[in-house]
Every structure is written in C-alpha cells, then in structure tokens.
Amino acid sequence: MTATAEGPAKEMGSPRKRSEDARLITGRTKWTDNMAPAGTLYVAFLRSPHAHARITGVDVGQAKSRPGVVAAFSGADFADEQGALPCAWVVTEDMKHPHHPPMAVDEVRYVGEPVACVVARDRYAAFDALEDIDVDYEPLPAVVDMEAAVADGADLVHEGLGTNTSYTWVFENGDLDAAMRDAPVVLERRYVQQRLIPTAMEPRSVLCVPEGDEFTLYSATQIPHILRLMLATVTGIGEHRIRVVAPDVGGGFGSKLQVYGEEVLALLLARRLGRPVKWTESRSEGNMTVHHGRDQIQRLTLAAERDGRIRGLKVELLADMGAYLMLVTPGIPLLGAFMFNGIYKMDAYSFTCSGVFTTKTPTDAYRGAGRPEATFAIERLMDELAAELDMDPIEVRRRNWIAHEEFPYDTIAGLTYDSGNYEAATDKALELFEYDKLRAEQADRRERHDPVQLGIGVSTFTEMCGLAPSRVLGSLSYGAGGWEHASVRMLPSGKVEVVTGSSAHGQGHETAWAQITADRLGVPFEDVKVLHGDTAVSHKGMDTYGSRSLAVGGVALYSACDKVVDKARKVAAHLLEASEQDLEFENGRFSVRGVQQEGRTLQEVALAAFAAHDLPDGIEPSLDSDATYDPGNFSFPHGTHLCATEVDTETGMVRIRKYVAVDDVGKVVNPLIVEGQVHGGLAQGIAQALYEEAVYDADGNLTTTTMADYLIPSAADLPSFTTDRTETPATSNPMGVKGVGEAGTIASTPAVVNAVVDALRPFGVDDVEMPCTPERVWRALRSESQPDTAEPGAGGGLGTAGGAQ
Amino acid sequence: MIPATFDYVRPASVDDAARALADAGEDAKVLAGGQSLMPLLRMRLAYPDALIDLDRLDGLREIRDDGGSVVIGAMATHHQVIGDPLVREHLPLIARATATVADPAVRHRGTFCGSLAHADPAGDLPAVALALDAVLLARSVRGEREIPAAEFFVDWMTSALEPDELLVGVRVPKLGAGWGVHYEKFHRTAQAWAIVGVACAVRRSGDTVEDARVALTNMGPAPVRASGVEEAVRGRGASREAFQAAAGHAAEGTEPPTDLHGSAEYRAHLASVLTARALSAAAGI
Known about the structure:
The structure holds 2 protein chains of 2 kinds.
Chain A: E1 3-4, E2 7-8, H1 21-26, E3 41-47, E4 53-59, H2 61-64, E5 69-74, E6 107-108, E7 114-120, H3 123-130, E8 134-139, H4 146-149, E9 165-173, H5 176-180, E10 185-196, E11 205-211, E12 214-219, H6 224-235, E13 242-245, H7 261-273, E14 277-280, H8 283-289, E15 293-304, E16 310-322, H9 332-335, E17 348-357, H10 371-389, H11 393-398, E18 409-410, E19 416-417, H12 422-433, H13 435-448, E20 452-462, H14 470-475, E21 484-490, E22 496-500, H15 509-521, E23 528-531, H16 549-576, E24 583-586, E25 589-592, E26 595-601, H17 602-611, E27 625-629, E28 638-648, E29 654-664, H18 671-690, E30 722-725, H19 743-760, H20 774-781, H21 798-803
Parallel strand pairs in A: 3-14, 12-13, 16-17, 22-23, 29-30
Antiparallel strand pairs in A: 1-2, 3-7, 4-6, 4-8, 5-7, 9-17, 10-15, 11-12, 11-14, 15-16, 18-19, 20-28, 21-22, 21-27, 24-25, 25-26, 28-29
Helix pairs in contact in A: 10-19, 15-16, 16-17, 18-19
Chain B: E1 7-9, H1 14-24, E2 28-31, H2 37-42, E3 50-53, E4 63-66, E5 69-73, H3 78-83, H4 85-90, H5 92-98, H6 104-109, H7 112-118, H8 125-131, E6 135-140, E7 143-148, H9 149-152, E8 153-155, E9 158-159, E10 166-173, E11 179-186, E12 196-205, E13 208-217, E14 224-225, H10 227-233, H11 240-247, H12 264-283
Parallel strand pairs in B: 1-3, 2-3
Antiparallel strand pairs in B: 4-5, 5-10, 6-7, 6-10, 8-9, 11-12, 12-13, 13-14
Helix pairs in contact in B: 10-11, 11-12
C-alpha cells in the first residue's frame, strides 16, 4: 500500500495485479489432477458411439481380467444406487423431465454418454481395458434437428414421454396484436444461435477420497456448495458426511456449473472400493460430454413506426435441451425472456419458448446464458430496422432507448432497470471509434467497388446480472435462492481471513476481495487472506456464475467488514474511555473526534478482543462477523460496442479491423480485472460470431471433437481492443457495482455479425448464419446457402482424423 | 487421451536407427519432433508397435550448403529453419511458409522433414517441397535412396518411404537469382490448417515471367503442382490481369476435399483467387 499525504491509497479502484496469478499461470498449485493421495485408482469411462440406441448387453468380464485393472462396472451395476442427475429448475408445472442416470442402463441418447467404467491402478491400464468391454446396442433413430423434432410423427428421444417438447413457457405484456396491426414496418427474421462447446483451459477432473463413511470430493467445479447438496440428494449420503473442495479451478464459463455423472460415480466408486478414485477428462472426451451452450432457433417479429420507434416484439424460440435436463438446462433460454427488449422502450412484447429434446449432449449455462442469445436478436434487429428505414443504426437506437433521466425504468419484460446512461456510453464509443471517418471510408470503398468492403456493426446492450434476488428465483420456480455469504475473521495478530461462498475459478476473487477488505478495515492488502471453495472452510455459499460474485458476494463481504468495524467500535470506545458516537474510524484506526493522537488501530482492538481481559459488558470476545446478502434487484451493466470488419468479397474472409468497447459496469474494484474480463469476454463473443460451432452429422455424431475442428481463436486472430468505461453506479447495492464477467460475450457477437452484414448489404445480403465462416460469407455473396458439409473428409490432418472417429 | 502401449527405442546413430526400424517390422513409427505423431498416439488413431526416437541424432540437426542445393537434416526444427541464413538466402519460400506453421511451441519442437514424412496434404511444407523440386533422402539397412518430391507424396498421409526407410534429410536446389517467392495461406485461425495454400516462385525478366513454380496445399490427397498455371504464365507478361487469367487453371485436375472448413467447390474457387494473389506477390506487383 502506498501512503500519500492524505493517508494510504485506496485499494478499491486500484489496478492491482492479481496476487493469485503466479501460481495459476505456472501450474504450481492444486489443480484437481495434480493431487494423488496414496493408493489412488484411476477411472476411465466407456462412452456411447451411438446417438441413440438400446443397450442389450454389457460385458465387462474381459476388461476386469486385464493387468492393473481393479474393477469394471456397467450402468446396471450401479442402477440401484446411482439415482438420477438433478435438474433444479422446473420451469412449468407440466415440464417433461426424463430420468437421467449418471451411467446409462437401458438406453443411450447422445454420443459420449457413459455406459461402463474401468477402475485401474494407472490411467493407461484403465484406458487399455476399455477396449475389452463388449456392449451390444440396438440402434434407434437419431433426433438431430429441432424443427423436425417438434413436428408430428417425429422420432422420439424419450419414447415414454410421448413428445420431444419438454415445456412451453410464455411471457406476454402489452397488446401485441394492436402493436402489429397496421404497423408501417414489420420485420420478420429467423436467427440461429449455433451450439457452442464451453472450452475451459482446465478440463474437468474429480478425485474422491473416502475416510470411513465420510468422503472428500475434489472437483474442478464452479459450485462446491451446490454440488455437495446435490451429491447428498442423489446418493442418499448425509450432506454432513460429504466435503466438497473446488481447489484452484482453471475456468468454467458455466460448464462447471453442473452436477456431472462422473462426479456422482466418483463418489459411488470410492464408497464401493474404499479407495481414492480419480477421473480426468481428455479434451476430445470433454468436447462430447461437457454440457454445451446456446443452440436456439429464434423466430422474431418486430413492428415499428416509419420514424423508427418500436411498437412491439414477438419472440418464438426453440431451445435445444439435448438429451436430458441437467442442473439448470430448461431455465437458460428463459433468462433471455427478460432481455429481448434490450435497452429499448416498446408497447408490447410476447415471448414463447419451447424446450426441445434431441439426441445430443445436454445444454446448460454458457457465459451469458440466455442473455447473449436475446441480445443478439434485438441488436441484429435494430440494425435490420435501420437498414429497412435507411437510417443510421445509432440514430434508430437513440429513438428507442431509455433516456438517462428515465431511470429507474420498468421494462416491457417486467424488470426494473435501476440505472444507466446509454447516451454517455454511446457518445464515448463513437468518438473512440471515429465513427464518421469509418463511415466515409465505407462509402468510398463501396463507390470504388473495392474487393475488400468495410462493415460497421453496433451493439448497444444491457444485461441482467448479480444473480439473483431469491424471491425472483422463487417466482421462476428455481430450486434455490440467490444470496451470498461472507465471513471476516480478525486474527489476534491483526491479520484478516476472509471466507467467501463465491468460489473463484479464474476471476481474481482473492485479489478483489482483499482490496475490498483492505479498504473497509483499513488494513494492508497483504494482511488479508481469502479462503473459498472448500465446504469445510466456507460452509455457506451459492457459488460463482451469472456475474454474481462482486454484485452479491462482494456486497456480503462489504457488509461483513462493516459489522467488524461496528463490533470493534464498541471495544475501542471502551478502551479509549469515550462514547461510540465520538469515535471516528479512518485508515484502520479509531480515534476520538478532535483528539487524533489518542487512538487504537483495528489490529490493537482485535488483540484486545482476543485477550478479552477488558471488554465492555455484554461484548463477546471476537470481532469476527458474518453477512449474507440477498440482492433486492438484478444489476444491469450496459455499454456500446462498435466493430469494423473488412470483408474480402473474393474469399469471404472476415477480418476485424477495429473494435471499441465502452462498458458501464458501475463502480469498479479493480480496473485491471475488469479489463481482463472484457477482453476474454470479447474473445468468446467474437468466437461465436466467426469461429466456434459444435457440428453434428445426420447420425448424431459430433464431428468437432478436437480443437482442430472446433476453432477457438487465439490472440493472434483477434484485433487490439480499444476498451473504456463510463461509470453509472448501480443504485441497487451499497457498493454501486454491477458485474462484468459476461458483458463482453453478450455485447460482441451481434456487433461483429452486424458489421459483417453491413459490409455485404450493398450485395443484397441481410444475414449470414453464425459462425460467419469464409465459405458462408462467400455463399451469401452468391445468394447461396451453405451445403451440408458436416461430413469430414480427407485433408484436415489431425482434425479430420479426430472427426472421422 | 492416453496412448496405447508401444516399444520405445532411442538409437545413438543413424545406422542404429535404420537397424532398429528394420527390426521393428511393419508397424513402427519414427519420432522426430512429434507434433503430428503424438496427438495421433494420444487419440489412439495410430497404434505403432514401436517408436524410433531420433532425438539423439544430433548430426541430423544440421542445415548445410551442398553447392547448388541446401540440405536440411531430419531433425532441424521449424524454428531453426526459419532463422537459418542459408535457408533465408537461397530458399526464402521455405522460411516464409514455415513461419506460418502452427504456433511458436510447435515450431520449436516440430521438424521440417517430419512434416514432409507425415505427408499431410493440409500441411504447408509438402507443397513447398514440391514447388522447389526438393529431393528426399531416405536411408535403410538396404542403403540410401533419393526420392524426388514429385514421387514422394503418394496419397493422404502416405509417402513413398518403405516401412524400413528413414527420412534423413531433404536436398533442396537453390533458386538462384531473379526469383521472387510467396506462400499464400488461407486459414480461419492462426493455428488452423490451411483450407488452401499456394506455394509460389516467379522469376521475372523485366515485365516478362521467365519461369514459375506453383504448388497447392490441401487441394487433394497429396500436394499438387499447378502445371496449368505455370505454363500459362511462362513467357508472358507479368501483370495482375495475366495472373488472374492464368490462375483460372489452378484447380484443374485437383481433387479438393470437403470438410468442416470448406467444400470442394469453395476450395476450387479459393485456389484460383489465392494463386492469382500468390503470383502477384511473388512477382512483386
């Protein structure tokens, strides 16, 4: 901490480098796969090669007899104790919710579903033995196309359900018929949110260590607390007998917000064998079995006046659930229900979503979870409306957005946006982008018929984060609350331990939480230790997802710190023989107002409280404090992103020339962390626009099982981002913070696609399906759709070889 | 994934390596940098009985001047090739194309000759070797053999090497004065394989093209020489228009694949666009 004449520098707002990074980057830390207690056995899973088939026999006998193999099991061997994987979000009363065994018993419904497992003394022996397991399958029809799946007479994923539709959920507000009737402008569009594979740097890994009838389960998970409760529920083992540890976790993006079959089976195998068991997925195994994201077909109808003002919006979604409902699968598209209106005012809104079963890997939360899909739709529509009216896309937005003086604003989707300043963020972005200059260049290139055309894409987005007010979750039939817990422990030496229920998996909690604590308690940053991710240490929590950590968990910590100071004030007043009202607390020191030289530091008070020799009556000998914060509202980060693309009309290649992101995430604890979150978010959102797509062939085989076929951009493929912020504090929490984890991902996808389409508009193009691959762009220019190229052929090197498996 | 079991041999001399390869039988693989082979092993797409690791054969790391040619040893890494003064001076096409291979980590482990022996038509370097009329140097217990690049790349991931033959190096004729070169690689991300690549060398005399070499990456089961293009530009004027017209022949006789990154039709289109660009860049116009 650097001291100035005014006292120590404020930690909050300081771009401090993350204290956890050295160990995370070098890998000299506790990744789950780095741990191997004595006697650990290794698990390998045999997975279904069929998208849909009846299992008529599994013979693990040969596999058991191989050297190094300790045990081998089929799903049937665990049928009586494995229960069913949970879905915590029953979105409608009549939602179809199929049984989901951790290891398949009678039927497999996606390629990669576990069918049997081998437990061996080393990983190699376990993998070798998989080849000796004999499974008899009776193939059933694959169901890969959502629109076909909901048609009459479609093949069924779950025969017993009698339908492929899990649920239909409706939200309506305002008179949509009136809005549509005689509307001067009506736009109808069909957009496809392609299926994505969340790709965390650390693959999934789980290690379960039995100790008598108790179990410690280490897992690369985002949700140690929820996982513990769910493991207890699924297996019947008492919650108090299970300890879950999320050690350092290398990314998740939602994919580790899950209760996976492999986690349940690790626990059951450890119980059955009485030995520690470990499983770590390979990348190609992960591509098939980590839950996937997005995958929606959106039918949109927008009615507007000729001056650009929106009358109403109708949204009809098909959302691919995959083969089963996992932890929050059915609720993900519904998070978008509140966001399709974006930042705009309108008179009527109708949202209908049907969840559809297919014989593919289940979907669930992926960075943004429902909001990117909604934001894409409305921001693409705004550019389409501008084109239809021959109006500048910024101007059409200005005519519709909520003006800064109108906050708090009750939206047509039923939310109350507490704050925002879309004008300020947009003005700043336009200036940084040099919007007029680029528009002039665009006109010039069009004029010259330059083979490389310039496109400009706009995205003025908002999102809801800080998940979530518990009463709202209750009204949506979600299975839990949305609060967060924090504890602050003042150690006798004056050092501080902070316990948070929001467990980091790469976000930088250890740094940010220490910054908050250092400021609130007036102690040095280095004196704060942040503990998290272990249910034995952090007994309460709702974990990390939905950009909730700071806006919920950070506020809980803020409040717990204040409670420490309140307790300390009583002790300090006693020690200073002054009344509490006369005490000031500044830079970690209590003093009597007007008598600066006499005082007690918080550390001195902590020691006095520890010794307890001289405490006021009725005061417990501890300053430790807990707080649980349940937000009263969501928070609503917003921003304006502008993207310029150069599109080579001869090859279809898209290159991002310039990207400006002005985000308003409210008050900022650590601008460097915010910057990092925005950069990473942009990379992932741009990846959806240009690169990533999980492709299934007609038989339901995933053809993008390797990173040669599932393209993830690296720094080399992305432009240098121009990022900046405006700061409109949230009014819904005392820190004024909003959350930043998902903003970049949500905002950038439509900005990029809008820019691609803008470049091609003179050629009569009004959409390019994502990802906007060079071939898709080239075909759009020739007014052709993409042929079905899901069949990998020769020439892709490893990628082809992997995909052909 | 985890590789299946295999025997592992790390010979100390080229003779020992050739002997080990002969002894290992049909299903042995030679390991140089391992950047293509190891992933295949890990994914259990290749099940060799034995791996012959050339890591100790330091003599094969050499890149040397051989008069009219440069000889690149089997263990010379991409990184080494890119920075080698002989390569930069006499074979700049190799230096440029190699700089586009994968990423720095791969370029520090992977080898030039390993890429050729792997014979992946999506790899960048087979087309370069073909364009430069490289000669591949094979060694076995039976003796030495020289294989011209035009005969080396037989089919998809299949070279003319016999199971007991070890690629010990490649001899590439120096281009000489007056040549301009370019490697035009078209790929979706920096680390992705080329959807189509064009290796190109053009020798100009004033405004006339005296000679040209054009070879294509990923336009069939093996790299292909675009002879139609070469003939169409030879002795003609060096202009964008002429190159565009000549590049129309690029896809002639090719059998481009259809995969997730591009259809055969699209590749054929790309071949002609990229060839025109490569010719212009190589000719410096």
